[in-house]
Amino acid sequence: MAKNYIKLDGTVCKGCRVCVEACPKQCIVIGSDINKMGYQYAKFENPGCIGCGICFYVCPEPGTITVIKEEEDKK
Which residues of 33-58 are buried (b: 16+ CB within 10 A; e: fewer)? Predict the structure, then answer.
């Protein structure tokens, strides 16, 4: 089974919530922690990620989101 997920860099996220609204599987939430810029930042919380990359494309802060899409083992 493929395991897809995203990495979010909370140090540059401004908590705009665009990725939260765009995620079709509701894998991203705005956490309660605050980064050094004073923003509550996005966090990946749901293992149902399909690795679609929508969050990556809609994020206005370059380099904040990295999509990891692992291929299934074919035996």
Answer: eebeeebbbbbbeeeebeebeebbee
Percentage of the chain surpassing pLDDT 70? 92
- Supply 67's token pair: 């999509």
Determine the average pLDDT of the residues in 25-40. 96
Task: Count CB atoms within 10 A of the CB of residue 20.
Answer: 17
pLDDT at 65 over 80: yes
Please state the rounded mean pLDDT for residues 5-24.
96
* Cβ proximity of 39 and 31 under 8 Å: no
Distance CA 19, CA 30 (A): 10
Domains and their CATH numbers in the chain: 4-69 (3.30.70.3270)
